[in-house]
């Protein structure tokens, strides 16, 4: 019943952690506690959201498919923090430059 407050709180945490670049999927869990009418009402307001129930195993296949699509098919298989990816990129550049300098001297 208070899902809009939870959505705001999650969005604040995501912003605080600077995770906006990470692909996200809105998921409403424990939908087995809702009537079919309540579930449809919630999803009407959030058309890209998924409804799941681990208890009833409802929507889990769709969740896995959405995760695969957002993370791997879209090229986000590497979920390292941005600072770590940048550090690795700089290390690779330095290694290439060192190798090129070695070849020039060699």
Mean pLDDT: 85
Distance separating the two termini? 71 Å
Task: Give Rg in angstroms.
Answer: 21 Å
Find the structural class using helix and strand composition.
Answer: mainly alpha
Number of helices: 4
User: In oligomeric terms, what are we looking at?
Assistant: single chain
Task: Give me the side-by-side strand order of the main sheet.
Answer: 1-2
Residue ranges: pLDDT <50 for 5 or more in a row? none
Topology as a string of helices (H) and strands (E): HEHEHH
Note the main sheet: 2 strands, parallel
Number of strands: 2
Please state the overall shape, judged from the principal axes of the Cα atoms. elongated
Percentage beta strand = under 5%
Describe the structure.
The protein is mainly α and 106 residues long. Helix content is 58%, strand content 4%. The protein has 4 helices and 2 strands; from the N terminus they run H-E-H-E-H-H. It has helices at 3-16, 36-45, 60-73, 82-105, and strands spanning 27-28, 50-51. It has a two-stranded parallel ribbon with strand order 1-2. It is elongated and about 75 Å long.
């Amino acid at each position: 019943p208070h899902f809009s407050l939870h959505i705001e709180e999650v969005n604040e945490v995501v912003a605080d952690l600077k995770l906006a670049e990470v692909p996200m999927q809105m998921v409403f869990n424990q939908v087995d506690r809702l009537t079919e009418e309540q579930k449809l009402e919630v999803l009407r307001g959030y058309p890209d959201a998924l409804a799941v129930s681990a208890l009833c195993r409802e929507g889990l296949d769709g969740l896995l498919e959405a995760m695969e699509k957002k993370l791997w098919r879209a090229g986000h298989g590497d979920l390292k923090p941005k600072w770590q990816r940048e550090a690795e990129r700089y290390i690779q550049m330095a290694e290439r430059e060192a190798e090129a300098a070695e070849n020039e001297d060699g």
